[in-house]
Amino acid sequence: MKAGPNSFIGNLITSMLGAVCVLASASASSAEARLGHGFTEQHPRGQAMVRFAAEVDKATGGQVKIKVFANSLLGSEEKMLQAVQSGTQEFYLGSLVPFSVRKKELQIFDFPFLFADDGEVAKVLDGPVGQKLLDSLGDTGATGLTWAGGAFRNVANGKRAINKFEDLKGLKIRVMQSPVAIESFKAMGINATPMAYAEVFTALEIGALDGLEHPPVDMFQNKIYEVQKYLAITHHVYTPVALVVSSKWFATLSADQQAAVRKAAVIARDFERAEEIRQDKDAVSQLKAKGMTVTELAPAELEKMRAAVKPVIEKFSGTIGADFVKNFYAEVEKSRKSK
User: Fold this and answer.
1) Where are the beta strands (DSSP E) in the chain?
2) Which of 231, 246, 281, 286 is least crowded, fewest Cβ atoms below 10 Å from its Cβ?
């Protein structure tokens, strides 16, 4: 029996409705996202974010796909964080310094000589005080997933070898755009110059800066050896980086998808920390091989640095909150004693 025109039209409509439902279902259950950071693809953090995207894809059965943009392709740290807050960018990995004026507690990470080694950093960041800082981002439009890692900063310059505290005086050094960092370096007699990191290499190249303070891995990855001659191992500040997600976008995911993203963040965090420690040691050797002179300040010289910045720490302890600072140092001490 031949189907009549009404039957044909009815079948066609049914097929079209079915296709629409399938598309709607796929749209509701799948999501695409962009993740931006300012590191090279070979950097431990760049590698970790590729691992993060792969873990999320695997755990969600391909329903959540993340495209990673390295080398500040999506803008500066400040611009990327603003994009995450507004929901126009889904993920960001990097420093939370741009939030530190609004979230003053974050300025504690700019306190010189706060941590002694990577082990105690991990214990504090993964503990209650670290989680409290991530949770405090809730009203910014960004959700903190994890403290993904970080590294100790050291001082490089193109003028002279740093063998003692006094050798630092008068150097024009790029510092983070943080009130604590700026005043700390000024207290040591350094001409502290805040500048977006993306602009630093050119400034060093043309002599607008004498040097910078940064972790060795970043220096090597960004070929700082091409414009700097000297590196002083000071380990004066540990700067953690965080992985955050747009709260607006994150809320569109199912509970299972959110859990998968959080689990993947922890996997990527552990990978990044281990790889950063491994590459940090290798980076110093690589910088030497590229012609940089590396010196390590003696404990007595580091103590002079501590004495110089003590008034700055006391000043900003009041700004940040005396109780918070006291509790933070207590957590550091607790992690130190548990070794």
Assistant:
1) 31-37, 64-69, 91-94, 142-157, 172-175, 191-194, 211-214, 230-246, 293-296
2) 281
